[in-house]
Amino acid sequence: MDHVTNQSRLATGLIWMGAAIMFFPVVWMLLSAFKSPQELLDYPPRLLPDRWSTEFLVYIWTERNFGRMMLNSVFVSSTVTLLTVFSSAYIAYVFREFQFRFRIPLLYLVIATTMIPLPVLVLPHFQIVLWLGWLNTYQALIMPYALWGFGVFLMYQFLAGFPHDLIEAARLDGVSERQIFQHIVLPLMKSPCVALGIITFLHQWESLLWPLVAANSPEMQMLPAGLATFSGDAVESADLFNPYSAALIAAFPLLIAFLIFQRMIVKGIAMTGMK
Amino acid sequence: MTSKNAFIYGAPILAGAFFLIWYVLPIGWVLWVSFWDYSPISPNNAPVGLENYREALFQDHVFWAAVKNTAYFTFGNVVLGTIMALLIANGLSRLGTLRRLAQTAYFMPTLFSIVAAAVVWEEIFQPRFGILNNGLYYLTDSLGLPPFPEIGWTTTTDWSMPTVILFGLWKFLGIRIIILLAAIEAVPRDLYEAASIDGVTKRQQFFHVTIPLIKPALWFVVIAGIINSFQVFEPMYVITDGGPLRSSVSMVMLVAETAFERQRFGYSAAISILLFGMILALTAVLFWLRGRSEER
Question: Which pTM was predicted?
Fold first, then answer.
């Protein structure tokens, strides 16, 4: 018996050691973000800042455009999320509830699009945006992602077990189809909507390649592309520079959201498998 | 048209138009352009037949380096990542006190913006000043072991891929743990109780109760992991910039570079199609394997 408890003690120890390793980069970023760029060059590196300084954070937020990039990221990610969630719910509901021509082939088409890797579409999307004269616009960042085959599929799956009596009753009462969807169906689809909303927002917030290609002007840049460009430029220019401050600004909204809504986010991810 | 009809026909029209414009026509266009020497800013675009494919497959060693690196990343990330996530999820499910704290630590990287995380890790991996080499040196030194050598994580061709894989393991472990932990939690408790009454050890329970019952989630983690890993881009772009000497360039990175830095859209399209083909083939094989494992 002794040997079993020792083993499980070892396992618990390893779990906690792993947790510490997972967590360390977050702590390291938090502490280093408040060091001065000079202090980062001190050797050997120390864990805590000598003097807590917010100068560099303020400098990149105001002078290096990070404030504007934050605004762009929040706006584009929220818009894409709202469009994706509502259009997916609407399309999935109509495809479940009504019969019309080409219903099945269209459904297969939508599901088939989830097989296409998004990076493969960056090239043609760039060409379309070029033709439309949309480079460096919000619509270029939003439109290609306003709908997502996976989202429609997720909602369609959810609706398989939908209580149909409610809809029939409302219909007999003369409620219009749009209102049935809006006031009866949509509220009952809250959990897949939240789950899809969370993963869509995460995808958009993290997205690097498309914003890098479609929006490179300073006032249109989103956080990941702006941060990657900033950190690349800084290495080459050898300016005094604290990459942790820039990373902190880009990372903190999600980290805070995670700490507050952890349960909901984890549930959402587990439910969808995050694609 | 009545409002009822507008409501109903709006959906297929919206879906049809959107996926036609942003998915079907674009993928057709990529295929078409892959047979051209094409750039949107060049006046002399010309069809070249299979030349782009020939160049990629038989001439361009960078293409094969990218294929190799992408496969290497996928292998490392999926095999190590799945095994680690499975063991950790199992450990977490048995953790009593402070379990939520440990969970938070493991899930945190999932919500850590990938580019921001990569910037942080780029500094951690820095050979001379980075905390990783210094920490390892300090650790071995204080334990009285021979001093840890200074590893060129991002600066040597030998280490650039392992470095990117290490980052990927850290970044993508949380999501796998979340999915596997949810599956493990769903295994009925009384199965374990019955097993322990019969004298089945914890290890045997893990292999004969847990794993068979969470097989669908495991398959999901493996398949999604392979499909996503094949599209890896951000870690290389930020941490190693594909180098040194192209030793960590990935396929998606090559696609982007070829089009947007070298203005060779046709060649980039051909590489895209090859990448798409590989992902489709892998997915087909994986689904077939999964189907077979379910039959048994």
Answer: 0.93
